[in-house]
Each structure stands twice: as structure tokens, then as C-alpha cells.
Amino acid sequence: MATNVGAQNWAEHSDLVEVSSALILACYTTALTLVAAPGANKFIQFISLTLAYDYGATAYTVGSMGSWRVRYNGVGTNLSESVSPTGFIDQSTDQVRITVGAAEDYTPSVNTGLDLVCTAADPTAGDGVIHAQVIYRVISTGL
After folding, report:
1. How many Cα neighbours within 13 Å face the side chain of 15?
2. pLDDT tens for residues 35-76?
3. Which residues lie closer than 8 Å to 68 by C-beta, 6 or more apart?
4. Choices 3.20.20, 3.60.21, 2.60.120, 1.10.150: CATH for 10-140
């Protein structure tokens, strides 16, 4: 039987990250930082991400962009389900998409931030922006 040691070792957070058109156009080349590293002996547990696409004057050309995933900075493990840019940023109207934590388990990366990464190629053209709302926990490992 587990022993309850009393103190809570995590805190839930919600951050709003504004993603400019320039960042969207370079999303494969440069990962988009969602959350900074939490500090020594702590890791981030991703919960969900809401992406609100604010259409500008030109929809993006997504081509072979692949999908977006949340990952630890510099680590290839997918922490989220995928978000397809097709039917999202290639539209001439505002759009909203939500993704949650990946169905498979993973080993957390201590003191590592969260990034939104594009899996295949940068989009071309387009000028809308994305308002990204990320929900996550920072957990102290006690190690």
C-alpha cells in the first residue's frame, strides 16, 4: 500500500503564447517555445493545447508540412496527439483546434521546456497568427 506523504509536489499552469506569422512560416526550421524549462529537479507534464488561428489576409499554403506536436525541447518524444495544419491554417476563416496528451507513456525530461514542433516542412505564404493556450503541470521529482 502506498503511503500518503501529505504535501502536494505539483502546480498546474496555463500560459498564452502568441505565435506570429514569421514563426509559423519557420515552424519546421525553428521549434516554437511554449513553456520555458521549469528548473532543477522538476519536469513538465503536458495536459492540453488550444490553438486559435486568427486568419489574416492570406491563408497558409501547407503543402507537405506534416503535423504539429508538443515535445520537450530538443527531445523527439511526442507529448501530444497531432494537429493537422490541413483544414486549419490553410483556411480563409478563423479556426480553433485542441490537442491533448499523447496516448502512449513516455519518460519525462527533467528541467526541459515544451515546444510546438512541425514534423515535416515549413508552410509557405500566409499571414495569420495563432493564439496558443497551453495547460500543464510542473512536478517536483523529489530526487
Report:
1. 17
2. 999 999 999 999 999 999 999 999 999 999 999 999 999 998
3. 27, 51, 82, 83, 84, 85, 99, 116, 117, 118, 119
4. 2.60.120
